[in-house]
Amino acid sequence: MSNPPPDDVEAELKPTATPGYNPGGSKSPEELAALDQEDESLARWKASLGIVPGTSATPAGPKLHVLTLELASSTLPSGKTISMDINNPQEMAAIKKNPIVIKEGVEYNVRMNFRVSGSIIPGVRYIQLVKRSGIKVDKFEKMLGSYGPRDEQYTVDFEPDDSPSGIIARTGTYNVVSRVVDDDGEIHANWEWQFKIGKEWA
């Protein structure tokens, strides 16, 4: 999706460590299905992840495939969303040349669509590092949870946020590095994109 970020950016993209938290070793769906079978609420949760007795992982192992990242806002014309297909090199190159324009001072939220195959992926996190003129202006990190393999895509809506406003916010291009990583340290997606703040959506 993109070249690896430089070392200084790589260090800033590391997930926040939770003191005392140990994710432990990964287990296959079959091993997880056999644990605590008498706990009904846990069994329901495992079933929601596709973990049921007789389940086994595919030889390919766990995979999380990000499909699109979207920006949604009630202020967008006709309730549309701005969507980027991070797997389309031409589309990502076009965004680099003509950055996404986000209207200043409005509420919006980010939505990620992805698929999971192979096995359960524990502790999926989305990390976003934003720089302008090479200076860090924001880092956002969201724990998305654990996901099991299934044919249908997952859609996760992030909490609403407000876009910045003012002449300073509207100056220059914001460069973003986005990453999806799990508790085992596996990087499932890593891509770069650009946006600007404008008086209106473009």
Automatic annotation (TrEMBL):
Gene3D superfamilies: Coagulation Factor XIII, subunit A, domain 1. GO terms for cellular component: cytosol; membrane. Residues 1-30 are annotated as: Disordered. The keyword NAD does not apply. Keywords: Cytoplasm, GTPase activation. GO terms for molecular function: GTPase activator activity; Rho GDP-dissociation inhibitor activity. It comes from the Eukaryota. It is found in: Cytoplasm. Its main location: cytoplasm. One of its GO terms (biological process) is Rho protein signal transduction. It holds the Pfam family Rho_GDI. Belongs to the Rho GDI family. This is Rho GDP-dissociation inhibitor.
